[in-house]
Amino acid sequence: MISPSSQSDSTTTPTWTVVVSRGQSRNPAKRSLEQSIADAASVLEGADVLVVPHLYDLPKGGESLEKLSELEGNLIVVSWIFPRAAHWVLDRNGVRGQFVPVAIGDADDEDEESAEPAESDVDRVADLYPRPKRQIHCIDLKAEQSLERFTEAIRGLVLGEDDSQEMTSGDASSSGETSLPIVGGQIVQVDETTSRRWYPVIDFSRCTNCMECVDFCLFGVYGVDAAETILVEQPDNCRKGCPACSRVCPENAIIFPQHKAPAIAGAETGGSEGFKIDLSKLFGAPDGGDDAIATAARERDEQLLLAGRTAVGIDEQLQRRQQDLMAQPKDDLDRLIDSLDELDL
Ligand code: SF4
Ligand code: SF4
User: Ligand 2 mean position to 40 CA, how many Å?
Assistant: First the structure.
């Protein structure tokens, strides 16, 4: 059901839509923050507001995704998942544009940062299939508790108090359209029933289409499209709570937005370091002294056994890649992990 909760001046031409994605919990403080942000954004001239359930849980064919897919122009997406995760969740659902993370909550780092992957000769899927020029600014609600910090950031974007306002070209503007006919100057709230989901989300600005994930996953989650490009074909086949394939992706391109380890949940990790860096060691995920490949194999086996199937362990392919991993020179983060290990905390 769609509930317009307020109406703004219909003569204004909105150029932004602020999308507020509600959290999964019923925490009243969170609900209050979300509502306050939506209310504050709705009074800004040039902004419409769309409130939807948690982005990650939205079902295909549902009202929320229908509304989101009809939006044109720039978006400001406010959600409880990391900005990179929010962007690629939208992308997989056809809501596409240029990713612009918005830094909140760090006084020394308020400028928006580019999310360009590390320089490399390797083709990324997003380079082969460029996304529209319109901007999708993503704000992480976990980053700050102050309503003012969020509303300041949104106001800065909408009212042009930020350089990025000058870059409002996109699909819509390039075709001479800048209006947002869907929400039309109102707060639109989609009260759609959702249930918690668990599936991988691919960051195509990192993905090289190497197909490692297809080979590794034994639950039929991944597939390819007509152009032989990797996609998450059967998301709900994924085993709840398991992040195994994110550990074997050579580009750290696989995100599980609800995982407790920030590196797996889509926190920025400085580019595509490769699977030799198991950031979970820094963030409390299963460790046991294993490297990323061994951990992934163990997690996959656990899921195979739970599904009544036979464990496969570290197969030949994984073994080969594990050896490649060991042969690679250490970089700064590896050295940091080693020095933390030596501290014996
Ligand atoms: S393993 Fe990673 S880089 Fe390779 S196809 Fe899968 S998501 Fe893309
Ligand atoms: S977490 Fe496991 S089941 Fe889910 S997609 Fe990855 S390998 Fe497949």
Answer: 40
Atom of ligand 1 nearest to the CA of 214: 6
Ligand 2 atom nearest to CA at 299:
2
Tokens 């580009």 belong to: 251
Q: Specify the residue for token string 């359930």.
A: 53
Structure tokens, 303: 């899921």
pLDDT digits (tens, 9 = 90+) for 196-218: 999 999 999 999 999 999 999 99
Write out the DSSP string of 239-286.
PTT--HHHHH-TT--EE-TT-SSHHHHT---SS---TT--THHHHT-S
Pocket test for ligand 1, best of 209, 216, 256, 321 (most atoms within 8 A of CB): 209
Does residue 221 have its Cβ closer than 6 Å to ligand 2?
yes
Conformational region of residue 29, where left means phi above 0, alpha means psi within -120 to 50, and beta covers everything else? alpha
3-state secondary structure of 217: coil
Q: What is the pLDDT of residues 277-290, one digit of tens each?
A: 444 444 334 445 56
Instruction: For strands 135-140 and 74-79, give the pairing.
Output: parallel
Pick from 245, 248, 186, 237: nearest CA to 49: 186
Of the pLDDT bands very low, low, confident and very high (cuts 50, 70, 90), residue 227 is: very high
Q: pLDDT > 70: what percent of the chain?
A: 72
Is residue 254 in contact with ligand 2, taking CB distance under 6 Å? Answer: no
Whether the model pTM is above 0.70: yes
Residue 154: which H helix or E strand, with range?
helix 147-158
CA of 246 to the centre of ligand 2 (A): 8
Nearest CA to ligand 1 atom 2: 249
Confidence band for 318, pLDDT divided at 50, 70 and 90 = confident
Cα(64) to ligand 2 centroid in Å equals 26
Locate the domains of the chain by residue range.
2-190, 201-343
